Amino acid sequence: MGSIDQVTGIDARQATTLRKAGVRTSGGLIEKASTRGGRAKLSRATGLSPRDLRAWVNHSDLLRIAGVGDKYSELLVAAGVDTIRDLRRRSPAALLARFAGLNGPRRVVERLPTAAMVEGWIRAAGELAPSIDR
Fold first, then answer.
1. pLDDT tens per residue across all 134 residues of the chain
2. What is the DSSP string of 30-64?
3. Same-domain status, 56 and 84
4. In sequence order, which residues have a C-beta less than 8 Å from that of residue 8 and are 6 or more positions away?
5. What's the domain count of the chain?
6. Which of 15, 39, 63, 72 is within CB 3.0–4.6 Å of 53 for a Cys-Cys bond?
7. Residue 91 within any structural domain of the chain
8. Would 133 be classed as within a structural domain?
């Protein structure tokens, strides 16, 4: 798992707050905040909202997919893919088209993923159990 700084949506101040609470990696965030009770406890300890924590756990979940690092997860989130469940339902061709449209003006990634990469991500998402307890 990657550093807490790699999770889409977490800024430097929030990352520092999470590190002070003992959350240093995306995996650590999943461990502490994958349940409603865990999010409530971490929220009380940090002052961060349970809603933000839930979004960040979902984004951390995307980092579990082989080949999806911080920049590709940022691209996925920008394309409206916030969870593994969302990714499972996507069409590779439609997602690639969305990436191309987003990456031009935003320049999220240096190189767009290939069709084979996106198909692999979708396949992997289908095989992984989501980490978050709804």
1. 689 998 989 999 999 999 999 999 999 999 999 999 999 999 999 999 999 999 999 999 999 999 998 899 989 998 999 889 999 999 999 999 999 998 877 778 889 999 999 999 999 999 998 888 76
2. HHHHSSHHHHHHHHHHH---HHHHHHHHHHHHHTT
3. no
4. 56, 59, 62, 70, 73, 74, 77
5. 2
6. 39
7. yes
8. no
